Amino acid sequence: MILPYIIKSALTLALLYTCIMPLLEKETFHRLNRIIVLGCLLLSFIIPLIHFTGGTNQTIEMVRQAVQLPEIQIDGNANKQSVWSLTDILICIYTLGGVAMLSLTAIQTMSLMLRLRRCKHITDNRGNIIVLTDYATSPFCLFHYIVMSHDDYANNRCFVLTHEQEHIRLRHYIDLIILQFATIIQWFNPFVWLIGKNLKAIHEFEVDEAVLNKGIDATQYQKFLVVKAVGNRLQPFANNLNKESLKRRIIMMNQKRSNRWMMLKALLVIPVATLAVSVFANGKNVSETAKEPHPQTTTQTKIHDAVEEMPEFNGGQLAMMEFLMNNMKYPQAAVKAKQQGKAVVGFVVRKDGTVSDVHITKSAGHAVLDEEAIRVVKAMPAWKPGKQKGEPVNVKYSVPITFKLK
Q: What is the pLDDT of residue 221?
């Protein structure tokens, strides 16, 4: 489901940002800080996709989850109305927010491009397109376009071109594209906005350092920044001279370079990322594991995860589906409360075919539904036992049961 993934992704980003950024933001390793910020963004989307099988072979897991049952549906008044769960509402709100952010980004970008098409275009000595506006605007760059007013081109060309050409040379627009897509996906997460603010500040620190390394007088350059630090960003993929981080930029320009040993702070990303993987990676829920009984510890007989000949319900999968459909009773309390969900019931098929050690390995989200799923599985008749090397053995098995009001 998309919602658990998005929530895990947001929490991963919050953890990475909270633990790592405060230690690095005052250091002068701008390139390293930039890589770490982008790495945190990318890791927040990758870590929730990591799947642990708990040491079990992936083929075994596929075999154990091979039985997919149809949804259990309820007749009566509940069918006459659409059931909206809290999850459905949250997904709807999230989708609307994402669509709104995507639409706003597209509208801002198209509007700006249309405005720039009507302006005068010339080419600089690096092959970039300089767009000269007839109105006063804070200089900025957009991909390979450098936008400035005619007045800035006449009076501040050296500062503006040097600054914006460095943004383009360092390919900051790639970072901004990644950031904007992350913001669209995690628009509700305050940490994606905070990390975006930090990334843009790092871009300016990196460019300021490159400009001063070209021999431009620091005092004159800083005066220019103060004069031009007006207005807001015109659209999400643009780098511009921004007043928000001006004080930090001037402090950073005058700050003594950090000791290289301070770069070791970046190694903190390894244990923090490991912690994020252990907490947010896709695997068996800790609480579910705690609730799950371990039949190996209650009997001396070995229980197999998978065998050469897996257990089979008498009559096959269709017969098992029919049995569950005929014996399942949608709890009236769940009908009234409009509760639905999917439970995965684990059990052991013994050597004699009997079903034992029935337990919930994944909850439907409501105790009354879990109890009904356990009840109907316990009521199953004897199975054909699994076999290993021709001998009957005890085998783990699991069945997914979906409760849905329609």
A: 86
Encode pLDDT of 214-260 as tens digits: 888 888 888 888 776 654 444 566 665 555 567 778 777 878 878 77
For 83, residues 6+ apart whose C-beta sits below 8 A from its C-beta are 338, 340, 405, 406
Q: What is the count of structural domains for the chain?
A: 2
Work out the average pLDDT over 323-343: 86
| CATH code for position 378 | 3.30.2420.10
Per-residue DSSP letter, 236: T
Q: Hey, what are 359's tokens? A: 């337990």
Token representation of residue 124:
């600089």
pLDDT at site 52: 61
Hey, what amino acid is at 91? I
Give residue 120's identity as a one-letter amino acid code: K
List Cβ<8 Å contacts ≥24 apart for 123-130: 124/161, 124/165, 126/165, 126/168, 126/169, 128/164, 128/165, 128/168, 130/161
Secondary structure of 66-109 in HEC code, one letter for each residue:
CCCCCCEECCCHHHHCCCCCHHHHHHHHHHHHHHHHHHHHHHHH
User: Residues 232, 200: one domain?
Assistant: yes
Higher-confidence residue: 351 or 224? 351
- Mind giving me the DSSP string for 110-169? HHHHHHHHTSEEEE-TTSPEEEEESS----EEETTEEEEEHHHHHHSHHHHHHHHHHHHH
Spatial CB neighbours of 336, under 8 Å, sequence gap ≥ 6: none
Q: 140: which strand partners?
A: 147, 240
Residue 328 banded pLDDT, cuts 50, 70, 90: confident
Answer with the one of 279, 314, 342 that is the final residue of a domain: 279
CA distance 328 to 373: 8
Q: Name which residue leads in pLDDT, 105 or 224.
A: 105
Adjacent-strand bridge partners of 400: 344
What is the distance between the alpha carbons of residues 39 and 199, in angstroms, rounded to a whole number? 11
Residue 272: C-alpha distances to residues 9, 186, 257 (Å): 14, 20, 26
Q: Are 374 and 359 in contact (CB under 8 A)?
A: yes
Quick one: pLDDT at residue 222?
83
151-183 pLDDT, tens digit each: 889 888 888 899 999 999 999 999 999 999 999
119 and 237 together in one domain: yes
Percent of the residues in the chain that have a pLDDT greater than 90, as a whole number? 34
Instruction: Please give the span between the terminal C-alpha atoms of the chain, in angstroms, as a whole number.
Output: 19
Domain span at residue 248 reads: 2-54+80-279
